[in-house]
Design a protein that fits this description.
Distance between the termini: 28 Å
Helix content: under 10%
Shape: globular
Oligomer: single chain
Order of helices and strands: HEEEEEEHE
Largest sheet: 5 strands, antiparallel
Strand order of the largest sheet: 1-3-5-6-7
Structural class: mainly beta
Length: 168
């Protein structure tokens, strides 16, 4: 069975693919086990790397590719892996300390994000208050903060699970 792009994501034929979510769309160690929800989302909005009305090239990211968020971890948004939905910059919660379902959140501490240069960085609430996080999500507003290399991680599995998260 293949995804039919001529039909809505939730058409009867495409819904049959929901339980075939690739492992790479789910936080590692939580595996696919018949899940249909993704844990990796883009943040869409006018000044992000994912504007609705146009594509963005790396050269368009004037805040710096090493300072601009491309994809984030999320638990709780309830977005199916085939669903054309992500986090909306205008309505998302930027408070990392609350691990919001409508923002950046993870089963791991701290949550992580992939930057436009491909590096993975951890994002703790103490180091990334909402205003700094918002600046990191924008791509060309001139407010991109530089990142400390101490937040760079090679392997996302090198983080502890949140206390309330069950081990897989």
């Amino acid at each position: 069975m293949h995804y039919n792009f001529d039909e809505p994501w939730d058409s009867p034929g495409n819904r049959e693919l929901l339980d075939q979510c690739p492992d790479s769309y789910v936080l590692h160690s939580h595996g696919n086990d018949g899940r249909s929800l993704t844990n990796y989302l883009a943040i869409v909005g006018q000044n992000t790397v994912w504007p609705i009305d146009r594509p963005v090239c790396l050269d368009d990211i004037s805040d710096g590719v090493g300072n601009t968020i491309l994809v984030v971890e999320n638990v709780g948004a309830g977005i199916h892996w085939t669903q054309p939905a992500d986090l909306d910059f205008e309505s998302m919660n930027f408070d990392l300390a609350s691990s919001p379902p409508d923002g950046i959140s993870s089963h791991y501490l701290p949550a992580a994000a992939v930057l436009a240069d491909g590096a993975i960085h951890t994002l703790s609430g103490a180091e990334f208050p909402p205003a700094r996080l918002q600046a990191m999500v924008t791509a060309n507003t001139g407010d991109g903060p530089s990142l400390d290399s101490a937040t760079t991680i090679e392997d996302g599995r090198d983080r502890p699970l949140r206390p309330e998260t069950k081990s897989p």
